[in-house]
Amino acid sequence: MVLASLPKTSTTKLSKKVFESRGHMKFFTCVEHSTSSGYLLTGGTDALLRVWFPHKTLSCIQELEGHVKPITHIMLNPKEKVFVSLSQDHHVRVWSEDILANILEEEQMCLKIH
Length: 114
Prior knowledge:
- It holds the Pfam family WD40.
- By secondary structure, the protein is mainly beta.
- The chain has one helix at about 105-114; strands at about 1-5, 15-20, 30-35, 40-45, 50, 60-65, 70-75, 80-85, 90-95, 100-105.
- The protein has one helix and ten strands; from the N terminus they run ββββββββββα.
């Protein structure tokens, strides 16, 4: 994955950072950016969500567990400060953007609806 910062003026150089899957990390399948916190969230074929601070380090700063199959989508809701992950395990998980923890699972959502 390459992160590129577009210049504000034509005289400013293009800035880029390259994030690579290393050894134990599998390939990224999806990515979402939080403008309020400045981090990237990536979903992988290894069922992990990873948190990155691209302007500080090229290394993953936290891995979030919860899925058991590859993650296919990540969607951020900045107003509610949550993000949702979807996986091939047929589960939907809701995560807190502030504490980076799973706060709601598909089963709990169904219970609330009934």
